[in-house]
Design the sequence.
């Protein structure tokens, strides 16, 4: 497997675009994105578990009921959620795009992200679609920018891998930032591959992967109404279609996981106001569920997050978060280490503190990628969760997001 | 029922004190508190559900196994948690105090609050106990200050009420601030009453009340390792002892609830960095559990909290938090209002936005006590949860708490 350029356009037959159509007032910010496969693709998706669901998700779910799609359209600046005319507007986005592309409206994945509860005007979208289609090309970064809200960095990746001796590619773009919390699917992620995979196996691959990747990310504990992850596979690589588990499926899963873990890390690192990526790696657990529960609890703790912002080795807050996680752990067996590019330091052994150099700890925690290592010393299972620090800027961004 | 002065010393036979003994470096801040009943009292308590438990809780639980207590000692500045010698130190605090007071060590409730995982030196406590006992008097506010950590305000209250024609009093002090999240018991609260109540009924009253009061408060979603609420009843009012449910028990419960709701509101309003008290009142629920689940979810949302800090009527975040709460609600039936001393404004009806004046909303949300009213329109049950806004100062306080 090799990391390659091209993001969501790396796979054969996929092109993308991102433009400013006028949903946002700031003309310098692209606010609508398109991903297009030149042939119909098998498609899979996972959606937020929030009972309040954005209208685009309801429409997309219906469109994907046959396991096929050919295009993704996604705007930023407005979530099209909790609006009386939401479904109608999402259908309209699909049909206008389908008409321009000459495909069926039911082959369109439609998504929106931004403020909840403000009517989404279809006019700038109607006016922008011809330009959006015209701009289609090797433009993954422009599409990635088009779906950004308070994200500060474009998030894209692609890798090449082999299936049955045939080279395949898989890539994706993502938006994260705020209202990000593990639950089935979080944030918006669009993945494309030219690998031939049946709709059933594609859904199986995505659902299974998401449980260990996007569901293990939290920026602020708020599960959004508009989250979804979609994966289109157009088969243009020419490999024999993957229709069951086995070596080929495993190779595909590995490539998919490389892409999704990369995007998880980038989403966490670019969480609203974040200055640091936090990874909580739990080992020595009795079960994967136990490891995941503990890792998520630590990564979601406001107190741990604020301590990491201050480069403060306040490991008691890590123990506290393990203790209230809901996992039945033996607290007297827990070891805790902090680690980064600057080294690794033990701060707690068997549930009690050990003497350590505050200066060395501060240096380790001053890096922008921090690992919080928790060993439960009770088994052989592991899990990892991703998050970010809690900063003044998180409060600033969210104290006045709408105006 | 009438609100009276005296806090934890209002009830007959109770005295208190708070001094600086040297656990904290700042000599201006009292760091140890004592509450004393001149006769042995029936006692009840509830404790944190965090699996990581402070050593003082373990010792207190053992001391209260006979349902009796006569004194409370509590230090701030150090939680005496996750220390290898924690139990030994907590036992020592009890026995040194018991010796000075001439009571049994098993009649001492011992508590600590502050940093986790740093050894607690017994020496300043040993040296301070004689002075602490000497200072006993009508000093509820000094005791309340002695247990404060990052709290900015003393929290105390007392009320008088009648049981069987006899005037009784109940009062309490509390510390809250950070690491505050509903779960059995949160924060430290010490309650005293001269009402005669059997140990069994006392525990029943406390456990039942806590479910609707302290368990419905959240500052930051982190359930502390050292939380407890204790209630001592010394019977000195002279009423016939309450030994079962009935009119007298109801009168006692009502007085207890008045005291605890007051302390909940003060704890939430003085949450770390808080500028506003938030109350989420849920009505129209199918069950109390549903109402509580929704109210807690809204009050815990970082995004709702940050919006309230910015006086931003971003009701979509309220809907979002209802949707991911885990309660099975019909999202199409939800109405949302914001309310304060400046008025009340409808922002969402039947799950969709309604036009409202942003200026009027801003004025309402600029007050320091805000109500978020959520009507589920599905039944007749209600619940209330208390919290606070998320501010720059929360991050500041917790980015560098230890140093």
Sequence:
């Amino acid at each position: 497997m090799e990391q390659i350029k091209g993001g969501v356009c790396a796979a054969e037959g996929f092109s993308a675009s991102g433009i400013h159509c006028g949903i946002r007032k700031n003309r310098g910010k692209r606010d609508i994105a398109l991903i297009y496969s030149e042939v119909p693709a098998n498609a899979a998706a996972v959606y937020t578990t929030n009972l309040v669901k954005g209208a685009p998700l309801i429409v997309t779910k219906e469109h994907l009921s046959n396991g096929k799609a050919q295009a993704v359209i996604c705007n930023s600046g407005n979530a099209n959620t909790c609006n009386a005319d939401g479904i109608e507007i999402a259908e309209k986005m699909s049909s206008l795009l389908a008409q321009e592309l000459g495909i069926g409206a039911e082959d369109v994945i439609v998504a929106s992200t931004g403020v909840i509860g403000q009517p989404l005007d279809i006019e700038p979208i109607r006016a922008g679609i011809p330009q959006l289609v015209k701009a289609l090309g090797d433009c993954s970064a422009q599409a990635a920018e088009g779906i950004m809200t308070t994200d500060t960095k474009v998030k894209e990746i692609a890798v090449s891998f082999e299936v049955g001796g045939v080279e395949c590619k898989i890539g994706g773009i993502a938006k994260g930032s705020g209202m990000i919390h593990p639950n089935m699917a979080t944030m918006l992620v669009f993945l494309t591959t030219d690998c031939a995979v049946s709709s059933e196996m594609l859904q199986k691959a995505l659902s299974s992967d998401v449980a260990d990747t996007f569901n293990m990310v939290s920026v602020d504990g708020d599960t959004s109404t508009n989250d979804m992850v979609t994966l289109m596979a157009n088969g243009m690589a020419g490999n024999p279609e993957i229709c069951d588990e086995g070596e080929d499926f495993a190779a595909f899963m590995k490539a998919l996981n490389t892409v999704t873990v990369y995007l998880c890390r980038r989403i966490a690192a670019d969480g609203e106001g974040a200055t640091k990526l936090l990874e909580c790696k739990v080992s020595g657990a009795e079960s994967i569920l136990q490891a995941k529960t503990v890792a998520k609890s630590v990564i979601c703790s406001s107190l741990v997050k604020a301590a990491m912002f201050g480069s403060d080795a306040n490991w008691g807050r890590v123990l506290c978060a393990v203790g209230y996680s809901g996992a039945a752990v033996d607290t007297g067996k827990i070891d805790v280490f902090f680690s980064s590019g600057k080294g690794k330091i033990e701060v707690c052994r068997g549930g009690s503190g050990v003497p350590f150099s505050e200066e060395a700890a501060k240096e380790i925690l001053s890096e922008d990628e921090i690992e919080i290592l928790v060993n439960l010393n009770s088994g052989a299972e592991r899990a990892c969760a991703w998050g970010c620090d809690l900063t003044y800027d998180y409060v600033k961004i969210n104290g006045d997001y709408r105006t």
Observations:
- Chain A has two domains: 2-269, 277-399.
